[in-house]
Amino acid sequence: DVFLFHLFDPVEVELPPPGRYRIQSGSRTVAIDTDSEAARRRYGAQFQRRKALLESLTRFPSVQLLECTTTEEPRTVLAKRFASR
Q: pTM for the complete prediction?
């Protein structure tokens, strides 16, 4: 069996409410503007395309997709999946 473990942040699914946000990663800071409805749709569509690509791989025998957000504990997600084994 092959398990694809899709770990993602809820912000990847949908941007926060319209506004300007500063995101910091280490010493790098980036500003994003989420006011544009078109940009919000494109952003959501980009995530859905990535997810669809992963889901398409589950058509192969013995390939399964497990999804986990950064707000969940990965061990808990895995334990739920393998509890029935």
A: 0.77
Q: Which two tokens stand for residue 80?
A: 């739920």
Question: Max alpha carbon distance in the chain (Å)?
Answer: 47
Q: In this structure, how many other beta carbons lie within 10 angstroms of the beta carbon of residue 15?
A: 19
CA quadruple 45, 47, 50, 56: dihedral positive or negative? negative
What are the Cα distances from residue 74, in Å, to 9, 13, 82? 13, 18, 12
For 43-76, write each residue's pLDDT tens digit.
Answer: 999 999 999 999 999 999 999 999 999 999 999 9
Q: Are strands 2-8 and 28-33 parallel, antiparallel or unpaired?
A: unpaired
Give backbone dihedrals phi and psi of 15, rounded to 5 degrees, phi first. -65, 155
Separation of alpha carbons 21 and 68, rounded Å: 24
